[in-house]
UniProtKB/TrEMBL annotation:
One annotated Gene Ontology cellular component of this protein: mitochondrion
Keywords: Disulfide bond, Mitochondrion
The organism's taxonomic lineage, starting at the top: Eukaryota, Metazoa, Chordata, Craniata, Vertebrata
InterPro entries: Cyt_c_biogenesis_Cmc1-like
Subcellular location(s) of the protein: Mitochondrion
UniProt key word Transmembrane helix: no
Signal peptide boundaries: none
Protein name as it appears in the record: COX assembly mitochondrial protein
Stated family: Belongs to the CMC family.
Organism expressing this protein natively: Junco hyemalis (Dark-eyed junco)
Length: 107
């Protein structure tokens, strides 16, 4: 049984996809998954104003640890890559680009 035409082509990623588009999905999803730490850091910054550099170190470190944990996880990268490939396949089939959902707690 032969693979579908273009199947090998669909698995290949361009540099912009590897270096920009998939990492963007990773950042968005990591922010969602670390939303409690994002909220804590945002709240601290809003409350302290100019002194946030000194006063919010603990919140910033917790946020950074959470985000870096996801960024450095190979299985998380593969999940985001699969999500991107699915979106790309849908776009190529329909020609309709789906809008990315923004996840915000800071409103």
């Amino acid at each position: 049984m032969e693979p579908a035409p273009g199947a090998a082509e669909n698995a290949k990623l361009r540099h912009v996809e590897k270096d920009v588009l998939i990492p963007q999905i990773m950042r968005d999803r990591a922010k969602e998954l670390c939303s409690d730490k994002v909220q804590a850091f945002t709240k601290c910054c809003q409350e302290t104003g100019v002194l946030m550099v000194v006063k919010c170190r603990q919140e910033n470190a917790a946020l950074k640890d959470c985000l870096v944990g996801y960024y450095s996880d190979p299985s998380f990268y593969e999940e985001c890559k699969a999500e991107y490939l699915k979106q790309r396949e849908e776009y190529r089939a329909t020609g309709i680009k789906k809008k990315r959902q923004k996840f915000t707690h800071n409103v």
